[in-house]
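Table S2 (continued). Query chain:
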Amino acid sequence: MSAALLAILGWLGFFLGYRFYSRWIAKRVYRLRPEAVTPAHAYEDGVDYVPTKPLVLWGHHFTSVAGAAPIVGPAIAVIWGWLPAFLWVVFGTVFIGGVHDFGALWASVRNQGRSIGALTEDVVGRRARSLFMIVIFLVLLMVNAVFAVVIANLFVNFGSSVLPAWSAIVVALAIGYLLYRRGMGLLWPSLGGLAILYFMVYLGDVLPAPELGATTWILLLFAYAFIASLLPVWLLLQPRDYINSLQLFLGLGILYLAVLISNPTVVAPALNPAVPADAPALVPLLFVTIACGAISGFHGLVSSGTSSKQLDKETDARPVGYLGAVGEGSLALATILATTAGFATLGDWQEFYQSFAAGGVGAFVQGGANIMHNGLGLPVGFATTLLAVIAVLFAGTTMDTGVRLQRYIIQEWGQIYQLPALTNRYVSTSLAVITCLILAFGAGGTAGTGGMTIWPLFGTTNQLLAALTLLVISVLLVKLARPYWYTLVPLVFVLLMTVLALLIQLGDFWNQGNYFLLLLDVLILVAAVWVVLESAVVFNRARLEARAEQVVE
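Corresponding output:
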């Protein structure tokens, strides 16, 4: 199979999805209103609620939702063959992920910028809201604790990525100042920032940072996340995510260009007939292994958490929400190409993928660097550094946003349960970081890898969150007498695959004697079933009421 042809087919699917399907959804289902006053204007405070140019906001949204997951998930899932991963990434992004991200952003903007968890009370009920927000907090806890480990390991294994990754913070602060305090346009700060960042990639390859150890890096990352989540979004979060998005898209462009020029052969089989013994069944595990890159519940948290508070016009929700999902799908597609066409022979690929856990960021960096070297003649060391920096920046921006979202959740709990101390952003941020550190070092010891303890539940919990978000959007649509099949059908599919995966995991945890994860799995499953049942009652009642109103009219 030609890797170039596979890339072109994937791009064509993404283009058609955005050009036609997202426009139809915007017009007929979500019915965007250009004159509507968004929360960014209604509650502008210069810290969290800030009207933002759509290109800058898209950069924040895209890099926040992407993270390392659309690299890790597809890099593992190709063990079943490239075809299932390719189909799920393309069709999942177009018909499910894009609609989910777009819908969560729209629903939050229409409801004072509240998170999808807080919105559940109005749409479904108080009990459903409480259970939903617990699931949300658990997902954020997993993401932040694990991504800190991922970044720390990348710093340890690829020391050349340290300098360019941290220099992006300084560049972002400078861009934020130039844009919002000096009133400069985007062009020159963008070009200057890109030039500096790519020079730092070169310099990092020449002058790798000294080794500090993963534990030290984890502590430094959480110290940075604490500070970053308190700063106004215009000062660091927006410009950092924006300039990172330009650098990351340029890096992906280089990788895709190398694919088109060298046109390597996809050596991995379309369907792998010799799957390792430890690999689970393709169905339903494919649909939770590849979460980010097709559909991810974490995206709904970003859409309704930070992006909805920065949307300048309601019509910007389509390019920010749907196109953000397409951007992540492009990263997942690049990962599939790098991990299936970046090896010289089928034997080399099979030697690498000897177990289900063999894939990951390392396969993406190694395979992508080989393609860049063969297609563009880039030194392998530089290409390796570039791809390692891409992985670090994606994970870092997601961690930035994740800690801020944890702060929002704690503040919303303070408002809901009338606990004024929790509404203080310093207190809520401290609690967010402390809970992450307790998980990291309480369950992982001095290594700080405790997040990995509950990571096996991330895929199913994350997809469960996506299904519940689609459920809230569907109930909201039926209450507004809007077409709801475009969210309801994806909801049923994702929910079915996720519940099946949860049940399979229950058996695995029981056989392994891992009663801690077994208990968590049961609690998550019970919470999900509870929310689904309450939502189904509300959905059916709203549907009957809407039908009765039509009869009366």
